[in-house]
Structure formats: C-alpha cells, structure tokens
Design a protein that fits this description.
CATH topology of the largest domain: Rossmann fold
Radius of gyration: 28 Å
Structural class: alpha/beta
Organism: Alkalimonas collagenimarina
CATH architecture of the largest domain: 3-Layer(aba) Sandwich
Number of domains: 4
Helix content: 25-40%
Main location: cytoplasm
Keywords: ATP-binding, Cytoplasm, Helicase, Hydrolase, Nucleotide-binding, RNA-binding, Stress response
Largest sheet: 7 strands, parallel
Strand order of the largest sheet: 3-4-2-5-6-1-7
Shape: globular
Number of helices: 19
CATH superfamily of the largest domain: P-loop containing nucleotide triphosphate hydrolases
Family: Belongs to the DEAD box helicase family. DeaD/CsdA subfamily.
Number of strands: 22
GO molecular function, one term: helicase activity
Strand content: 15-25%
C-alpha cells in the first residue's frame, strides 16, 4: 500500500472529511491509514497498537461512513474498559459526526443515572459506547437491544482482560447478531485475547503498528497528584513558584478556558483564553500578544493550540490530563522550541493513574512526581523579584525628585531611614504581599492507596483462573483471609430493594474513596440499607465525601454502625466480587 498523505485519499464521505479538517487532522496516522480502508469495506479487523496512536479515529470514521441515518436503533457498539475512555470515545464520535444529520451517540457507564440512560435509549441512538458491566446490566434488563447491530468494537481489549471484564465481553459478543462486523484493538496480544479473536472474527485483517519512541528532547516532564478541587490553587502556586517566560495551560473544554482565565486574571496574571469558538482574527491577536510579552499565560484547548509556535512558551501545564498520549505529545511540544529548554507539568487525580501509565508507556518516558512550591518558596521568590525590580529602578531611573521627597518626609515624620523605607516597602507590595509563607497551607496528596515504588510493577490477576459466569451463579464467599488493622462496621443507606449488589458497593467505595478493595471487608445487604466493614481510620475528608456518593440512585449517607462496630484484625472476606489476597484491585463499573 502506497503512503497515505491525507484523509481525502481514504474515500471517506465529505461530512466526515469536513469535521476532520476542522479538528486540525492533516495526515492519517499509520493505524488510521491501514484500518480505515479495511473497515470501510466491511471486513473484520484485529489491530495491535499502543494507546495514543489514533485508534479511535481509525475505527470511528469508517464505521460512521457506513451508518444508516434513518435507523434509530444502535448500529455500532463500542466496549471500553473504563468510564473515562468510554466518555472520550463518545466525544470523539460526536466530533467526527458533527455534519451527519440526526446523529446520536450514547455513553453508558457505571455511576451514571439509569433513568437518564433509559430515556436516551428510548429516544434512539446509532452508537453506544459503554463499559462491560453497565452494558451487561442493560442487556439483562432488556433495555438495550442489539438486533440491528452492524458493528462491535473492542477498544483496549488487553486492558479489559487485565481488569477482569473478559467474561462479560464474551457474553456481550455472544448476544450480538451474526454477520456483524468486528474490530478489536489491543496494545498486546495475550493468549486469551487471540482466542476471542479466533472465535468471533471472520477472515480478519491483522494490523500491527510498531510505535517508535516518542522522544521530546529538552523538555522536563513531571506530574502532581491531587484532587480536581485542588487544581486552581496548585496552578497558581506553579505559576508563582516555577521559572518560565510564558506558559500555556491545557484544559479539555471551551468553557474551562474562559473560567480559568477569568480566575487567573482576578489573581493578577496577564492571561487570555484560546478556544475553538474564537474567530481567526481574535486568535491571531491573542498569539501576537503573547509573542510581544503582553500576555504571560494562555489557557487553551487541544484544537485551539494546534500549530501554536511561540518561542516564549517555556512551561506547559496539563490542567486536565489528555485522554491519549498523542494529544499529550502535541501539548508539550508547544514548549522547548528553537533549541530552548522546556518544562511540562501534568495534574493527575487518583482516578487518572491509568491514563498516566498509558502516556508513560506510549511515550516510553518516565514522568517524575513533583511537590508543589511551598509558601516559603513563593515568599522567597516574591522577595527576589521585588529586589530585582528595585535594583533595576535604582540603576536606570532618575530618582532625584524622590530622593528630595524622602528627605522632606523623614524630617517631618521624625523617623529613621529604615523606618521610612519599611513603610514605603509595605505600601508598594500591598497588592502582592511579600510575607506570605503562612498563607499557603500545604496541599496534601489525596488519601488512599499510595503509589508503589514502581508503578508498573503491580501484582496482576491471572484471568485464566477466574471462573466463568456460568460456573459461579451464587457467587459463594471465598475462603477467609486476614485483614490487618482495626476495622469498623459502617451503615450505608442503600439495600436490596434498590437493586444494589455487593459489587456496586465495592466499586463505589474503591473508586470514590480510593480505598484498595482488599481493605473492604464483609458486606451485608438488607432491604433498606447495607453494612460494610472498612478501616477505622478513614480520613475525615474522605468520610464526608463518601456520604455524598450515590449508588443505584441512593446517597450512601455513610455512618458508623454502633451496633456492629468492631476492632477485629481478622474477619471473613465479604460476600460478592473482589480480588484474591495480593491481587490488583478490580474496577468493575456498576
């Protein structure tokens, strides 16, 4: 196959080409150039490629080209291992289908309201993107019908295997109609994944893309672990505590560019937003202002920053972590231009560790963990900056008028040189005080499971040993295991009458409180409430957060169950899903 240099060469419909052009895509990536023609022809496909190589467009564009706009039932089903990836893929479909008439895509994942999903399914949609657990729930309820499905995509199949979803994937695929098109993408090809491909794919084309090392020289890369509500404070500390000439801050949405730019402006920064809603004239004015030194910070989306080349930009802040490594490489490539040094800093929440690992894996570069600048560091930097301004004024300005005033004031105010200088210094720095160390309390890393010394060296669950769905109808409790430390019994306000399962409770607590599922003990389901054994020393902020978490549309309202409180160090393992001792925690969307 000759080298493809543009999307126009791939025989895609004009509405898709128009959307792709507006998104700034120019030359198809290798996986796109190989996959799109084969999927357009209706063939099955087995693709091996790393995250961040453009896989979503590789399957979304050709499958959208074959949609029947008049059919309201689901025609395409995409299975993804996590809710974050499901949202990302759904957003990509929506962007590519911008000019397709009456197009609807529906993301379905755990933690989302069932009633909203049911209403959307009743209204009709051509594409469903979901996590295996929630897709299974809708299939069991009969609320998702796949009779007219034309294609199914397994995205990051090896990740679904690692997370323990592969049995659900098998069941879902068995419920799809014969003759549907199948596309499977996986970064690796373990035995179980290849077995699924042999069973469900027919005369499939196999594509393997070898990713070259994505090296961004002269750019130091670091990350900060924090919660979303800590980001703005963390950003202002970085902008004060880091050395940089100009900075670009990347966010996911257009509205976020405006919101954060306004908040930074209120804190005294020369800042502007850059997003896809701007006309070309406004965009050019903003770029010219940052080049001329009139702006120091630009808050931008990925699309708006494409092609941005400003030598002054020496710091890139990923305020929102990108969903794929290709976007990450594009972002940090805005710095380190023209042979200069550059810095890239990434904000990561506990839920986004997987995305961080994917970026490191795809770029083949470690991203170092960093601590935010402390109040003492910011105070010292302000003092140094003020001293530098003072020295420059003393060397370059004619100060004779002010020296005469100082002499008059010193005499009339009857104060010493030092007293007068201190009073003037206080007035000069009042808008940005120099003595601020105590005003910057420490931003604590989110509580929960600490990162292991080697993040990639995690114990993995052998899914080949996991019994199939048919072999475990009663989900009998596993053998007893030891749980170290004091545990309390907690009451949560969701029970059998709400349709809750032990797995729902485990998933909610593990995800929302970032508690390793091996530290979630016995769960007892009652009609109107349930009890769960958890460590006795849950941090207060995590406990308060859990009170507001919803499971099966019920707020947990967690409280200590006085009648069942224990201090035991050993107890039977809970009834319901959960890892064996030493196994990696499994995240199953409810």
């Amino acid at each position: 196959m000759s080298e493809v240099t543009s999307f126009a060469e791939l025989n895609l419909p004009e509405p898709l080409l128009k959307a792709v052009a507006e998104l700034g895509y120019e030359t198809p990536s290798p996986i796109q150039a190989e996959s799109i023609p084969k999927l357009l022809s209706g063939a099955d496909l087995l693709g091996q490629a790393q995250t961040g190589t453009g896989k979503t467009a590789a399957f979304a564009l050709p499958l959208l080209a074959r949609l029947d706009a008049g059919q309201r039932e689901p025609q395409i089903l995409v299975l993804a291992p996590t809710r974050e990836l499901a949202i990302q893929v759904a957003e990509a479909f929506q962007s590519y289908a911008k000019y397709l008439p009456q197009f609807h895509v529906l993301p379905i994942y755990g933690g989302q309201s069932y009633s909203n999903q049911l209403r959307s399914l009743k209204r009709g949609c051509q594409v469903v993107v979901g996590t295996p657990g929630r897709i299974m729930d809708h299939l069991d309820r009969g609320t998702l019908v796949l009779d007219k499905l034309k294609a199914i995509v397994l995205d990051e199949a090896d990740e679904m295997l690692r997370m323990g979803f592969i049995d659900d994937v098998q069941v879902i695929m068995d419920k799809t109609p014969p003759g549907r098109q199948v596309a499977m993408f996986s970064a690796t090809m373990p035995t179980q994944i290849r077995a699924i491909a042999q069973k469900h794919l027919s005369n499939a084309h196999e594509i393997k893309i070898v990713t070259k090392t994505s090296t961004v020289e002269r750019i130091s890369q670091r990350f900060v672990m924090l919660e979303n509500n800590q980001k703005l404070d963390a950003l202002t500390r970085l902008l004060e505590g880091e050395d940089y000439d100009a900075s670009i801050v990347f966010v996911r949405t257009k509205s976020a560019t405006e919101e954060i730019a306004v908040k930074l402006g209120a804190r005294g920064y020369a800042v502007a937003s850059l997003n896809g809603d701007m006309n070309q004239t406004h965009r050019e004015q903003t770029i010219r202002r940052i080049k001329d030194g009139q702006l120091d910070v630009v808050v931008a989306t990925d699309v708006a920053a494409r092609g941005l080349d400003v030598e002054r930009i020496s710091l890139v802040v990923n305020y929102d972590i990108p969903y794929d490594s290709e976007a990450y490489v594009h972002r940090i490539g805005r710095t380190g231009r023209a042979g200069r040094e550059g810095k890239a800093i990434l904000f990561v929440s506990p839920r986004e560790r997987r995305l961080l690992r994917s970026i490191e894996h795809a770029t083949r570069q470690p991203i170092e963990k960093m601590a935010l600048p402390t109040g003492a560091v910011i105070e010292q930097r302000r003092i140094q900056n003020f001293r530098a301004e003072l020295a420059q004024a003393n060397e370059t300005q004619d100060l004779s008028f002010y020296q005469e005033l100082i002499g008059q004031w010193q005499e009339s105010l009857e104060c010493t040189d030092k007293e007068l200088a201190a009073a003037l210094l206080y007035l000069a720095q009042k808008d940005q005080p120099l003595n601020v160390a105590s005003q910057f309390p420490e931003i604590r890393e989110p509580q929960g499971k600490r990162e292991r010394e080697q993040r990639n060296d995690r114990p993995r669950r052998d899914n080949a040993e996991r019994p199939s769905r048919s072999d475990r109808p009663d989900r009998a409790p596993r053998q007893r295991r030891e749980m170290q430390g004091d545990f309390n019994t907690y009451r949560i306000e969701v029970g059998k009458e709400h349709g809750v399962r032990a797995g729902d409770i485990v998933g909610a607590i593990a995800n929302e409180a970032n508690i390793d599922s091996q530290f979630i003990g016995n769960i007892k389901l009652h009609d109107q409430f349930s009890t769960v054994e958890l460590p006795a020393n849950i941090p207060a902020e995590i406990f308060q957060h859990l009170k507001k978490v919803y499971v099966r549309k019920q707020k947990l309202n967690i409280t200590v169950d006085k009648a069942g409180s224990t201090g035991a160090a050993a107890r039977p393992e809970r009834k319901g899903p959960g890892p064996r001792p030493g196994a990696a925690p499994k995240r199953r969307p409810s």
